[in-house]
């Protein structure tokens, strides 16, 4: 099954649930009618929150850049001795 | 343990595409040999006619390490990354394939952990991830981080791929699996990396992750711009309807 159909099936299930809610009038109609808007807003907030949290906790590794510099020096030294052209380039 | 790699009969073909990586290719070859001492492997360099003389350096490296360990499989002109992988794959003699960039943003010191993870779990694909404990990125500005996080959240919500880092390209594959999956991939750039892993995941292949750190290339700037973002969104839509 293509992935888009899975997502559509999920949306249809949610829509069915919503229509069910409207009909049984378990909660006031005026609330129930606004539910889709609330859920879209919630989804948007969730997305923004995830991006924000991800950004704040973005894993960085400054020490790796230093280690890499040492590796580069070691490599150049060895390769130069073996006659590989690693000059200024 | 180390000896078992050799006796286990596994051979690893490391495919490195290059375009103008004269200095980097020498450094990365040295580092691969430094970190994979007791492993049977070959390095396949797919160079697309780099004008900076990358191939000359590769020939010098062959003198040092042997032509059976370093294979130069050049192509006449710049034909793109996706086809570079397939080209290298055609010449791979190992039963496992590693794909990595030559620009030192993928450090060879992580190769043993890819191999170890695969041996422990029997996974078909081991993919390097920057977004878990022990992983990380260096050298990205705020804008680059923001697009990366945004792209990731979007892809996770829409595609449910089961992998935390979709666009990284430092990975180890069973050769047969890569051959099968790559033949159905048509995207370019970042989307190509995403397409491979999503298709493999949909086919039910066992995918494992290992943390890697990513130090952005020191020279030259990243090409991430508006057109890249549009391309990414198109790719996402394409994967939604075809996988
Ligand atoms: N054979 C071949 N290799 C390529 C081509 N384009 C890029 N490469 C290589 O593919 C690897 C990844 O390319 P990069 O230019 O680093 O791409 P990137 O990591 O997305 O972008 P940067 O931010 O510039 O690092 C490097 O080893 C390049 O030399 C190509 O057309 N042909
Ligand atoms: Mg790069």
TrEMBL record, chain A:
Matching Pfam families: DPM3
Membrane-traversing stretches: 34-56
InterPro entries with a match to the protein in the record: DPM3
Superkingdom to which the source organism belongs: Eukaryota
Keywords associated with the record: Endoplasmic reticulum, Membrane, Transmembrane, Transmembrane helix
Keyword Membrane in annotation: yes
Topology class, membrane: Multi-pass membrane protein
Keyword RNA-binding among UniProt keywords: no
Cellular location(s): Endoplasmic reticulum membrane
A GO cellular component entry from the record: endoplasmic reticulum membrane
Pathway(s) annotated for this protein in UniProt: Protein modification; protein glycosylation
Function of the protein: Stabilizer subunit of the dolichol-phosphate mannose (DPM) synthase complex; tethers catalytic subunit to the ER.
Stated family: Belongs to the DPM3 family.
Assembly mode: Component of the dolichol-phosphate mannose (DPM) synthase complex.
Protein's recorded name: Dolichol-phosphate mannosyltransferase subunit 3
Species this protein is from: Vitis vinifera (Grape)
From TrEMBL, chain B:
Entry keyword annotation includes Endoplasmic reticulum: yes
Keyword 4Fe-4S recorded: no
Assembly, per entry: Component of the dolichol-phosphate mannose (DPM) synthase complex.
Top-tier EC class: transferase
Gene Ontology BP terms: dolichol-linked oligosaccharide biosynthetic process; GPI anchor biosynthetic process; protein O-linked glycosylation via mannose
SUPFAM superfamilies tied to this protein: Nucleotide-diphospho-sugar transferases (SSF53448)
EC number: 2.4.1.83
Span of domain Glycosyltransferase 2-like: 13-181
Biological role: Transfers mannose from GDP-mannose to dolichol monophosphate to form dolichol phosphate mannose (Dol-P-Man) which is the mannosyl donor in pathways leading to N-glycosylation, glycosyl phosphatidylinositol membrane anchoring, and O-mannosylation of proteins.
Subcellular location: Endoplasmic reticulum
Pfam family of the protein (one): Glycos_transf_2
GO cellular component, one term: endoplasmic reticulum membrane
Protein's name according to its UniProt entry: Dolichol-phosphate mannosyltransferase subunit 1
GO molecular function: dolichyl-phosphate beta-D-mannosyltransferase activity
Principal subcellular localization: endoplasmic reticulum
Family of the protein in this entry: Belongs to the glycosyltransferase 2 family.
Entries under InterPro entries matching the protein: DPM1-like (IPR039528), Glyco_trans_2-like (IPR001173), Nucleotide-diphossugar_trans (IPR029044)
Protein's pathway: Protein modification; protein glycosylation
Catalyses which reaction(s): a di-trans,poly-cis-dolichyl phosphate + GDP-alpha-D-mannose = a di-trans,poly-cis-dolichyl beta-D-mannosyl phosphate + GDP
Gene3D superfamilies: Spore Coat Polysaccharide Biosynthesis Protein SpsA, Chain A
Keyword vocabulary terms for this entry: Endoplasmic reticulum, Glycosyltransferase, Transferase
């Amino acid at each position: 099954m293509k992935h888009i159909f899975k997502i559509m099936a999920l949306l249809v299930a949610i829509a069915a649930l919503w229509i069910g809610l409207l009909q049984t009038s378990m909660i006031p109609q005026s609330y129930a009618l606004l539910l889709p808007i609330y859920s879209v807003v919630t989804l948007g907030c969730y997305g923004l929150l995830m991006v924000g949290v991800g950004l704040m906790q973005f894993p960085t590794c400054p020490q790796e850049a230093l280690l890499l510099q040492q590796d580069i020096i070691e490599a150049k030294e060895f390769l130069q001795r073996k006659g590989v052209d690693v000059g200024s380039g | 343990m180390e000896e078992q790699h050799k006796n286990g009969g596994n051979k690893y073909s490391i495919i490195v595409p290059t375009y103008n990586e004269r200095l980097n290719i020498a450094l990365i070859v040295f580092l691969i040999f430094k970190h994979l001492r007791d492993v049977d492997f070959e390095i396949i360099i797919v160079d697309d006619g780099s004008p900076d003389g990358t191939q000359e350096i590769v020939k010098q490296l062959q003198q040092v390490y042997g032509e059976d360990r370093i294979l130069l499989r050049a192509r006449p002109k710049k034909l793109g990354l996706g086809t570079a992988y397939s080209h290298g794959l055609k010449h791979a003699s190992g039963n496992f394939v590693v794909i990595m960039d030559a620009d030192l943003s993928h450090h060879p010191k992580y190769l043993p952990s890819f191999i170890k993870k695969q041996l422990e779990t029997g996974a078909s694909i081991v993919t390097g991830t920057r977004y878990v404990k022990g992983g990380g990125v260096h050298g990205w500005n705020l804008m680059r981080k923001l697009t990366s996080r945004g792209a990731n959240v979007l892809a996770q919500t829409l595609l449910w791929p089961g992998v935390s880092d979709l666009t990284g390209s430092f990975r180890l594959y069973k050769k047969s699996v890569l051959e099968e999956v790559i033949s159905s991939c048509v995207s370019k750039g970042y989307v190509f990396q995403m397409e491979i892993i999503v298709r493999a995941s949909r086919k039910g292949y066992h995918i494992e992750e290992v943390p890697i750190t990513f130090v952005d290339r020191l020279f030259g700037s990243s090409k991430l711009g508006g057109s890249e973002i549009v391309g990414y969104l198109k790719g996402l839509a394409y994967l939604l309807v075809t996988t």
